[in-house]
Amino acid sequence: GFMTRYERKLFDDLKSPHLKYWVPFVWFGNLASKARNEGRIRDSVDLQTLMNEMNKYRSWCSLLFGYDWVGIPLVYTQVVTLAVYTFFFACLIGRQFLDTDQGYQGHDLDIYIPIFTLLQFFFYAGWLKV
């Protein structure tokens, strides 16, 4: 509903090795200039404001395209993986319960399974893999 059938055909027939997000902006610029020449936009300042806002939006789309174009470097993935595993190793040790009233020699670690820490690890490790 945003394009006529003729515009859709023009859009689909346009050959481009990259995304074609910029085509509607070109169309908009041409239509705005045509509207200024026909007197539908009364002042050049209004046309300039309209074109500035359109260019700002186009630059945001271009920035988004740039983020999609460049992948995350492998070193970031490795650092995050190391941080997640180190955090949960520290959690396994740090979240142990020591009952000082029991009189443990040297306060050794209790041996029990920290269920919530393991669930947290499975969720974070799952999200990390995604």
From TrEMBL:
<keyword id="KW-0869">Chloride channel</keyword>
<protein>
    <recommendedName>
        <fullName>Bestrophin homolog</fullName>
    </recommendedName>
</protein>
<keyword id="KW-0406">Ion transport</keyword>
<dbReference type="Pfam" id="PF01062">
    <property type="entry name" value="Bestrophin"/>
</dbReference>
<keyword id="KW-1133">Transmembrane helix</keyword>
<keyword id="KW-1003">Cell membrane</keyword>
<keyword id="KW-0407">Ion channel</keyword>
<dbReference type="GO" id="GO:0034707">
    <property type="term" value="C:chloride channel complex"/>
</dbReference>
<dbReference type="GO" id="GO:0005886">
    <property type="term" value="C:plasma membrane"/>
</dbReference>
<dbReference type="InterPro" id="IPR000615">
    <property type="entry name" value="Bestrophin"/>
</dbReference>
<keyword id="KW-0812">Transmembrane</keyword>
<comment type="similarity">
    <text>Belongs to the anion channel-forming bestrophin (TC 1.A.46) family. Calcium-sensitive chloride channel subfamily.</text>
</comment>
<keyword id="KW-0868">Chloride</keyword>
<keyword id="KW-0813">Transport</keyword>
<dbReference type="GO" id="GO:0005254">
    <property type="term" value="F:chloride channel activity"/>
</dbReference>
<feature type="transmembrane region" description="Helical">
    <location>
        <begin position="82"/>
        <end position="98"/>
    </location>
</feature>
<keyword id="KW-0472">Membrane</keyword>
<comment type="function">
    <text>Forms chloride channels.</text>
</comment>
<dbReference type="InterPro" id="IPR021134">
    <property type="entry name" value="Bestrophin-like"/>
</dbReference>
<feature type="transmembrane region" description="Helical">
    <location>
        <begin position="110"/>
        <end position="127"/>
    </location>
</feature>
